[in-house]
Amino acid sequence: MKHRTFFWFILPTLSAMILFIALPIVSVFIQSLFVEHEQVLVVSESCGPFGCTPTTTVDTAATAALQEEQPLGRFNGLNTYINRSHLAFAEVGEAWRNTETFGAFWKQIINLPFYRALIFTLTYTAVVTPVVIALGLAIAVGVNNLPRFLKGPSIFISLLPFLVTPLVGSLILFWMVDSDGVIGATIQRIFNDPSLSLKASTALTWTMLIVYGVWHTLPFSFITFYAGLQTVPEDTMEAAMIDGASKWQRMIHVIVPHLAPLMSFVTLMLLMDNFRVFEPIVSFKAEAHATSLSWIIYNDLRESGNPLYGSAGATSMMTIIGVVILLTPVLIRTWRDFSRKAH
Amino acid sequence: MLLKRLAAASLFAGLMGSAAFAANCGPEGQSIRILASDFPAIHAVVDAARANCGDAAAEFTANHTTEARQIMNAALTPNPAEYTSVILANATLTQLMNDGLVRPLNDLVEKYKDSIPPNVLITIDGNVMAVAFMANSQHLFSRKDILEQAGVDSIPASYEEVLEAAEKIRAAGIMEHPIAMNLQTGWNVGEVFNMIYLGHGGEFFAPGSAEPSINNEQGIAALETMKALAEYAHPDHLTHASNETQGLWESGQAALAIMWGSRGAPILDDEGSTEEVTSNTVLSAAPTVGGGSIPAATLWWDGISIASNVSDEEAEATFAALISGLTPEMVAENNDDAVWLLPGFEPGPAAAGVAGTVQGGARPYPMIPQIGLLHAALGSELTDFLKGGESAEQALADVETAYRTSAKEAGFLK
């Protein structure tokens, strides 16, 4: 294709991407560099049905004047990125100097909200992604080998978790693992411990979130691989059979290499999705034991009444950077495959 | 003095009774748009206002949503604002005042003073910012049959007695986890700290400034009390908010609970529970703590505010309509839906807890501009202590640093 034709061909997509993806990211980045104006506080007294108490109020006229001067707020540079709620350079440095053992240092690090969230987010991504790929492939191969009349129903059933809204799906599981719920009560009976609670232990909460994550994203990798399996060339398979390859050998040496590009695609999608884990944490009310980067953004925007746009912006930018870092190896691999084929 | 006030109140109640037939709706043909939370008492007030003044207005709409707090600032910022009035509470009034989105009501109050009940004006720095109509607070719910069974003679009046009673219930083998509290990570656990800290006589900020002052003896005592209580609470307590604790109570799985007064009526009604539970549930004032004299609770009110960014005529019509709903008839019809601060209210068993807490002199939830930030910091940093991984001092230090970080970003601290 000529460059000129290509340009006109890609223009609508490109402009939509700039308008709806690139510009918002630039805007979020700019907002993350600013903090609110100084609030002009006045000491006053508040009275109501329960008596009078001394209080302070914001002098809105004075604050509005400041806002008029600089609508974006005060420029803060990258300070929001390195404060305690985010990368916490000062706190990490202090912890490094003041602790003797690595264990003590680690304890101080996981006391910082950003690192605590990052650790769960990475663990979740690192466990859910490979498990979903392996299980998805296994189920796809299994379904593919079923007799014809069973295929339709089993595909439908395997897709069900994907049809359930994440928030609703996790709420249902949350009620099931309650100590009065069917799973929670069964586990209590098995271990004969009436105070055993899946929601009260950090390890069990993480397990629960990861199991939910696998359950919910499995259909995506299953259906992609199942589609891929329909394109495995019959000739190659027959040749392998004639050469005496076992079922397992055919799987490893024919099917998996054939599906490799699809695997890169599924890995990319899963890494991005899992790194943004959010809904299950809210519906499982798991904040005491597990938080994620997306959850921090939500919390900054929602919890304190007046949203902290700078903090939310900084965490959003770092989430994007995190996704880019995670995707780099996969992208490099894809690029290599592409250039090899091109030459 | 007291007699005089009583006489004035009854005269006033008489006036209100006769005024209800011809409500004063202010300027006609205006648009009245109300944003409010979604619970029965607020529906009652808004519906009464609609019945009185809906016909005189060109438009009368009400959006009752549990997300009111999340959308109110954005909805009131444009000029003209999306709503002419927000039905709000202590904390949300501060949230709107921080952005200057609600107007002082002094002239409207002066004009309609004959229809406004006494002692309900919320005045900040001499300006009336809201008109309250109902009160709410956390307080104690007890099961008197279980207390008797465990050998506890009276309803506990202090947290120390609550813990003692809980131990007796556990020792008697009646319940392993007799206490229910809203300890869910986030707003709820922060609120439990607030009330017990106030009960210990604590102050949240250095006077007149935004510097936090919670890492002190009272703060540590409050956390120790919370931990002692959590020992007797259901193992899932860090995921429990009002709906879960009400569920535990109604299914008979708790004998002592600290819950919101607004849960009193739904618990005592004949739905969702058994006769055994409802007939033995006693509502009483929030317990005192650490030898203090006031109930450890935060008092809340719900009231009427008027948006800044609307025309004066719309503001007046909205104010007049909502005020016209605050009649003894409305209260009589919805007596058990709330603890009304209005004439004609007859406190029933469902109101005993809040009434006792107010009379005991509990402190109101502070109306300080930066309290939301401190509350959020408490909500996210205290669970480490309750889980047992951290000392009380460390948890409170974490709260203060987390608060300082966000207060700097919001411009309250340098």
TrEMBL record, chain A:
**Entry annotated with the keyword Ion transport:** no
Report the InterPro entries cross-referenced here.
Answer: ABC_transporter_permease, MetI-like, MetI-like_sf
Q: Which residues form a coiled coil?
A: none
Q: Which domain of life is it from?
A: Bacteria
Pfam families attached to this UniProt entry: BPD_transp_1
Localization (cell) = Cell membrane
PROSITE patterns the UniProt entry points to: ABC_TM1
Q: Where are the transmembrane segments?
A: 7-30, 117-143, 155-177, 203-229, 250-272, 308-332
Keywords (A to Z) from UniProt: Cell membrane, Membrane, Transmembrane, Transmembrane helix, Transport
Q: Which SUPFAM superfamilies match?
A: MetI-like
Query: Residue ranges of the ABC transmembrane type-1 domain?
Result: 118-330
PANTHER family from the UniProt entry:
ABC TRANSPORTER PERMEASE PROTEIN, INNER MEMBRANE ABC TRANSPORTER PERMEASE PROTEIN YCJO
Provide the family line. Belongs to the binding-protein-dependent transport system permease family.
**Name assigned to this protein:** Sugar ABC transporter permease
From TrEMBL, chain B:
User: Where in the sequence is the signal peptide annotated?
Assistant: 1-22
Question: Where do transmembrane segments lie in this chain?
Answer: none
Q: Which InterPro entries does its entry note?
A: Bact_solute-bd_prot1, SBP
Superkingdom assignment = Bacteria
Q: Where in the cell is it found?
A: Periplasm
Pfam families of this UniProt entry?
Answer: SBP_bac_1
Alphabetically sorted, this entry's keywords are: Signal
Family, according to the entry, reads as follows:
Belongs to the bacterial solute-binding protein 1 family.
* Protein's name according to its UniProt entry: Extracellular solute-binding protein
